[in-house]
Design a protein that fits this description.
By secondary structure, this protein is mainly alpha-helical. The chain contains 9 helices and no strands. The chain has helices spanning 11-30, 38-45, 49-56, 59-74, 83-97, 105-115, 121-136, 145-161, 168-188. The longest helix has 21 residues, at 168-188. The protein is globular.
């Protein structure tokens, strides 16, 4: 299943997606538990509820799609070719963002979607492509987005959800060093 609302970037689809995302972000900002009601999104966005259900299928799918879109703007992934510098910049920003409780709505929505048998991967696919592009820009094919997920994203989000956030200054460098060690070992082996 494709992350809906993303297949046609122009015209009415883009306006609908922008209106629904804006309403979702506003409702998330007001939400105590990081959830939204699709009927409220419809009312606030002016988009028919059936259209929202058809494109996003669930509130969690909509939250994930909205926040992945926002992540691209708020936390860009550089791809300058200097992998260590690119990763350090991005991971420092990621860990800094995770120290703010309002930034955990994304992780909570992914957990809820997974708990209902849905895969959040379909919604985060644009971000996966960005991560892989950063890795590929460094002339290495030995690291994949899954390495970044397992060595950086999973521990960072888990610790943030457990209210034990990582220190951006100290832990970003350590996480980057771990990825670079994996890269070196694979290149030698």
């Amino acid at each position: 299943m494709q992350a809906t609302g993303t297949s046609r970037p122009g015209g009415r689809t883009a306006r609908t997606r922008a209106a629904v995302h804006a309403a979702t972000r506003a409702l998330l900002a007001e939400s105590a538990d990081g959830t939204v009601d699709l009927a409220e999104v419809a009312a606030r966005s002016g988009v028919h509820l059936a259209t929202i259900y058809r494109r996003w299928r669930s509130a969690d799918g909509l939250i994930i799609d909205t926040l992945v879109d926002e992540l691209a703007d708020r936390s860009p992934l550089p791809a300058t070719g200097d992998l260590r510098a690119d990763l350090l910049f991005w991971i420092t920003n990621l860990l800094t963002g995770l120290t703010r409780p309002d930034n955990l709505a994304f992780a909570r929505a992914l957990l809820r979607a997974g708990g209902q048998g849905a895969s959040g991967l379909e919604f985060v696919e644009p971000r996966v492509r960005q991560i892989q592009a950063t890795l590929d820009a460094s002339d290495t094919t030995v690291l994949t987005w899954m390495d970044v997920f397992e060595l950086v994203l999973a521990p960072a989000y888990l610790r943030a959800l457990l209210s034990i956030p990582m220190d951006p200054a100290a832990d970003a460098a350590r996480l980057v060093d771990n990825l670079m060690a994996i890269r070196s070992a694979r290149e030698r082996g």
